[in-house]
């Protein structure tokens, strides 16, 4: 049953929006809204056969919404599954005896079972392609070696190394997973490869173990073991030809690590990592053979839709000193592009470009020079930025915009019949409201109360850069005036597309509600988001006499 219902997105707010009540509405609030709409749509109030038929349809829809939300069990099912959940046979005999909390627990159990079935079909592929580029001839050229050779006047750029790795996971049971991985590498004409198989078992909620077998042309048979165990809520141990202790959560956002590794490259490493919503900081210190170093890095996270991050780090040890700085940004729904400049002694200057596409990683380290040349640092910093801005303006933005329009068009086509039906229902509701609205306006005018002069709902174009786009709005003056009671209009946080007399004029696009109203003889105006609650009149909505 869960599998049948969980695959599609379900709009759970239709009934709440139709009755214009909060999702936490009490029985009294539901009853008051239901009675008011019954008085508006009752078929016996209309003599015209066509209006009577249309009123009966709307009356039945309101009655259905009320019957679902007034019953705790039906309401719990609707909140989880939507309207489709109410159509499934079996709830009336199986779930009727359960409380809303038990129904939610049942849903979570069914969801887990469905996830376990899906688990059997997943391989979770991951891969990485790294291409090393030697561009030192651009900045650090041996002129005497090339001046007499044909084509010696042009810098030579070479690919000097490449690495490809791929892995897949095959869940055997809910606790056992097999991992198959392989890699191929080549550097200056010499290459090699390896293949590994690992079996991982979750032993309990606190630990797991892994056994690994491998072989390659550059090494003999490989056998390894890895163990993980939570000792306390703040302390865990990992063993893998070494041992790592970690004190979890020194505070809410900080973790500390202590690692000891033995073998041909024995070392002890301690590090502190602090990760917050806006930043990421790491400090590490390692003492070992042959490498000892100290490293500090900082990353700032911009709170924008592209998830832009800038970062910098300093690493110093027996091997020399390296300073790195760079940035990364989300360029599409599943892709993240990053660039890092590395300046080191004696390593020289390098530019590292990385593209993450879903679970695949493409890495391009470009070695520019073995010396610290200002020109290499300048071009490594400015070049990628200029290229990115050009590609974003000429390729990425037009592509994303076209893709979004294509997706919206497909969504509109698939929902065309449903939108047409809702539009017809809204137009019918407006016709049935006319008499009630006339009486409400007369009552409000007699006490200089709340009069809705104009109301529009949909997509408004207010940005000059988007003037080429067409506004998509509908007139909702009558439906909103019909909701006025005692010189007040209260709308809940549900999408307003479900209100009586409303429909969605621009599926999948951002919508707003614009109101021009009069209260106590004074003009007021407000622009409200689609899912924002709204209460009028308000002093802050007043329009100055000069305006």
Would you kindly provide a brief summary of this structure?
The protein has 547 residues and is of the alpha+beta class. The protein has helices spanning 2-6, 14-19, 27-41, 49-70, 72-81, 83-86, 91-95, 100-119, 143-146, 374-414, 416-446, 477-482, and strands at residues 126-134, 158-171, 176-187, 190-204, 207-216, 222-232, 235-239, 242-251, 254-261, 267-275, 279-288, 293-301, 309-317, 320-330, 335-345, 348-357, 360-369, 450-459, 472-475, 489-491, 512-519, 522-529, 534-536. The strands form three sheets. It has a 17-stranded mixed barrel. Strands 19-18-21-22 form a four-stranded antiparallel sheet. Strands 20-23 form a two-stranded antiparallel sheet.
What does this structure look like?
The chain is an alpha+beta fold and 547 residues long. The chain is built from 12 helices and 23 strands. The strands form 3 sheets. The chain has a 17-stranded mixed beta barrel. It has a 4-stranded antiparallel beta sheet with strand order 19-18-21-22. A two-stranded antiparallel sheet has the order 20-23. A hairpin with a 5-residue loop joins strand 5 (207-216) and strand 6 (222-232). Helix 3 runs antiparallel to helix 4, helix 4 packs across helix 5 and helix 4 (49-70) crosses helix 11. The radius of gyration is 33 Å and the shape is elongated. The two termini are 59 Å apart. Residues 1-12 and 89-97 have low confidence and may be disordered.
């Amino acid at each position: 049953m869960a599998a049948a219902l969980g695959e599609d997105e379900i709009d759970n707010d239709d009934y709440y929006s139709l009755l214009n009540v909060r999702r936490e509405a009490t029985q009294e609030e539901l009853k008051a809204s239901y009675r008011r709409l019954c008085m508006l749509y009752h078929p016996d109030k209309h003599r015209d056969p066509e209006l009577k038929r249309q009123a009966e349809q709307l009356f039945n829809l309101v009655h259905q919404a009320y019957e679902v939300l007034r019953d705790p069990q039906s309401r719990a099912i609707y909140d989880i599954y939507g309207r489709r959940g109410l159509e499934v046979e079996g709830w009336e005999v199986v779930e009727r005896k359960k409380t809303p909390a038990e129904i939610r627990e049942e849903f979570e159990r069914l969801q887990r079972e469905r996830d376990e079935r899906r688990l059997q079909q997943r391989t979770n592929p991951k891969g990485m392609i790294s291409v090393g580029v030697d561009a030192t001839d651009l900045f650090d050229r041996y002129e005497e070696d090339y001046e007499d050779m044909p084509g010696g006047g042009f810098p030579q750029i070479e690919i000097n190394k490449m690495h490809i790795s791929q892995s897949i996971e095959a869940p055997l049971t809910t606790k056992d997973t097999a991992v198959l991985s392989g890699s191929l590498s080549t550097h200056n004409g010499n290459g090699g490869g390896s293949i590994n198989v690992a079996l991982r078992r979750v032993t309990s909620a606190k630990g797991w173990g892994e056994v690994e077998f491998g072989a390659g042309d550059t090494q003999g048979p490989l056998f390894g073991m890895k163990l993980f165990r939570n000792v306390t809520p703040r302390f865990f141990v990992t063993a893998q030809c070494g041992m790592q202790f970690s004190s979890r959560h020194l505070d809410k956002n900080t973790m500390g690590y202590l690692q000891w590794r033995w073998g041909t490259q024995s070392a002890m490493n301690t590090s502190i990592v602090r990760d917050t919503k806006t930043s990421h900081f790491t400090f590490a210190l390692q003492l070992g053979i042959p490498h000892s170093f100290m490293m500090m890095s900082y990353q700032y996270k911009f709170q924008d839709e592209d998830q832009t991050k800038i970062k910098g780090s300093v690493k110093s040890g027996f091997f020399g000193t390296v300073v790195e700085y760079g940035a990364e940004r989300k360029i599409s729904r599943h892709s993240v592009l990053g660039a890092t400049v590395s300046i080191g002694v004696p390593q020289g200057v390098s530019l590292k470009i990385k593209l993450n596409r879903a679970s695949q990683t493409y890495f391009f380290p470009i070695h520019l020079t073995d010396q610290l040349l200002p020109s290499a640092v300048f071009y490594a910093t400015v070049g990628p930025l200029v290229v990115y801005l050009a590609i974003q303006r000429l390729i990425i933005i037009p592509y994303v915009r076209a893709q979004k329009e294509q997706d919206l068009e497909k969504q509109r086509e698939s929902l065309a019949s449903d939108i047409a039906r809702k539009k017809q229902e809204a137009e019918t509701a407006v016709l049935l409201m006319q008499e009630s609205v006339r009486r409400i306006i007369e009552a409000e005018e007699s006490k200089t109360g709340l009069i809705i002069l104009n109301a529009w709902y949909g997509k408004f174009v207010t940005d000059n850069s988007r003037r080429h786009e067409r506004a998509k709005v509908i007139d909702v003056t009558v439906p909103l005036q019909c909701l006025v009671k005692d010189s007040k209009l209260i709308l809940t946080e549900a999408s307003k597309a479900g209100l009586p007399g409303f429909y969605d004029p621009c599926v999948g696009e951002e919508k707003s509600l614009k109101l021009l109203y009069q209260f106590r003889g004074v003009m007021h105006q407000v622009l409200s988001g689609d899912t924002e609650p709204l209460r009028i009149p308000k002093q802050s909505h007043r329009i100055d006499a000069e305006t």
